[in-house]
Amino acid sequence: MVSYKGYEPVIGVEVHVELRTSEKAFCRCSAEYGGDPDSKCCPVCLGMPGATPSLNPEAHRLAVLTGLALGCKIERVSRFDRKHYFYPDLPKGYQITQFYDPLCRDGAVTFELDGVRRTVGIERIHLEEDAGKLSYKGDKLSIDNNRCGVPLAEIVTRPHMRSADEAMAFVDELRRILLFAGVSDCKMNEGSLRCDVNVSVRPVGSETPGVRCEIKNINSINFIGRAVDAELVRQTDLILSGGTVEVQTRRFNEDTLKTEYMRKKEKTADYRYIREPEIPAVITDEAYVESVRREMPPLPAKREEELRNIGIKAESAKLICSLPKLADYFDLVKKETSDAVTAANLFVSEIIPVMRRGEPCVPPEYLARCADMFAAGDVNIVSARTSLRLSLEEGISPHTAAERHGLFVLKDEGLIKEMIEKACASNEKTVAQIRAGKVSAKKVIIGGVMKLSSGRAEPRLLSRLVDEFFE
Ligand code: ADP
Ligand code: MG
Ligand code: ZN
Q1: FRET pair for 459, CA 20 to 30 Å: which of 52, 76, 316, 443?
Q2: Are 190 and 17 within 8 A, CB to CB?
Q3: DSSP H or E segment with residue 330
């Protein structure tokens, strides 16, 4: 929905991503997912009195990489603060975060939506730590502190989005950038990428922002869209019936597809922010930023554009650049083949579905050779697909598959002539029509030979031989 009863939504999102480090943000505990509850904790991540945190350089580097991937300015000096709140998943009673002086500011993410380019501003990115994990079994609450202290980057956008579709497309593109940059595995279902969505509404055409509600922890891109639309309807109906929108923290109910009241939104003062006294200011100098920039892997929008520039269909380029493992595989194919466009078509139709299912796949050279066979005119496109499929099934090269299963194009003149004779013998009427001057009837003979050769007769050769036959 773009608007509802004359109102439009204004949307800003906060995205938390777990940074892919081996150790936690401020201690040397393992940051690996899973394990027995509380098996990856120490006095630092549990906030015991006297424990001294120190910043994990790898978390710092990945946060800088995140900032650069999103076009942010990296601040030379950033600092950590304590954000206090009480919750069973936070044994320290505060979270170490960056409130006053975040590491990155002023970036942007650009993407296409229905053929139109959109840009969403990034206000800031700060480095912080994750909390523990609560789970309910019946009325019993258990707490696992293994996630306490795992490094997170919080990415805060400006309120630049104007529809559910735009919010979904933004998060999709953000996720893709972070995956390609290699900063996080971005699994929304495992919680390594989580979204809070802020929504307000205003009459279409108005410039005055409305009062926003924040919907916490939405765990799929689809639900982000549903939550925005649910809020657009709820807030608009509330206003039109004479009510006022209150600043609230809400949650999305996946069964009713509606948002529900959680609590009145905390005010900044409620958190009693103070500077974290145990961790010195972080200095990120220009030389360091440049060294991180040099390690930045190529990002998906650029890779997609490069594929389009060599003639690959926009839709295929987008699909190939939807996951690093697909783009990396295709890069190897591209280097090996003389026909990248055919290779891309074969990749999209035959290989991507296999890779998406996580099944074993043929080596990139096989796909490259298969496209080459087509480019050389040795197989037609149907046989190219078939030989690739057989190659996947039987673990043999597409060339061997084409040989074993007789898929090569038929270029043997003698054999084709025999087939023309056979086709003529069973189409006497047609032959008479052709001899009487009805040239178009030749297609019947051509069709007959194609049938006899299971579609493998080389079309130009066949057409020439049919012409010669009737001369
Ligand atoms: P908080 O911690 O209070 O949620 P943040 O500054 O972290 O505040 O995040 C505020 C988010 O709300 C940002 O993503 C911002 O774009 C968004 N936002 C601010 N004003 C509005 C508004 N009027 N309507 C919708 N979203 C808004
Ligand atoms: Mg917030
Ligand atoms: Zn620890």
Answers
A1: 316
A2: no
A3: helix 324-336
- Is 10 touching ligand 1 by the criterion CB < 6 Å? yes
CB within 8 Å of 201: residues ≥ 6 apart? 7, 8, 9, 10, 210, 231, 232, 235, 236, 239, 245
- Phi first, then psi: what are they for 113, rounded to 5°? -135, 120
- Please choose, from the candidates 13, 155, 129, 12, the residue with its C-alpha nearest in 3D space to the C-alpha of residue 71: 155
The residues spanned by each domain of the chain are: 7-289, 298-404, 413-469
Compute the Cα dihedral for 403, 409, 410, 412 and give only its sign: negative
Q: What percent of the chain has pLDDT over 70?
A: 100
Phi (first) and psi of residue 408, to 5 degrees: -70, 150
CATH topology of domain 413-469: Arc Repressor Mutant, subunit A (1.10.10)
Q: Which ligand minimizes its atom distance to the CA of 132?
A: 3
Containing 8, the helix (H) or strand (E) segment is strand 7-18
Q: Assign 215 to helix, strand or coil.
A: strand
Tens of pLDDT, residue by residue over 158-204, are 999 999 999 999 999 999 999 999 999 999 988 899 999 999 999 99
Alpha carbons within 13 A on the beta-carbon side of 383: 26
Band the pLDDT of 137: cuts 50, 70, 90: confident
CA of 98 to the centre of ligand 3 (A): 19
What is the pLDDT at residue 263? 87
| Residue at 70: amino acid letter | L
Give the pair of three-digit tokens for residue 178: 């972070």
Number of H helices, E strands in the chain: 17, 16
Task: State in Å: Cα 92 to ligand 3 middle.
Answer: 12
User: For ligand 1, is residue 160 a contact (CB within 6 Å)?
Assistant: no
The mean of the pLDDT values for the chain is: 94
Name the pLDDT band for 266 (thresholds 50, 70, 90).
confident
470 φ/ψ angles, rounded to the nearest 5 degrees: -95, 5
Question: Is 80 exceeded by the pLDDT of residue 265?
Answer: no
Calculate mean pLDDT across residues 316-339: 96
Choosing from 156, 208, 211 the residue with most ligand 1 atoms within 8 A of its CB, the one to mutate for a pocket test is 156
Nearest CA to ligand 1 atom 17: 12
Strands 73-74 and 7-18: unpaired
Which residue intervals of 120-267 are DSSP H helices? Answer: 164-181, 221-240
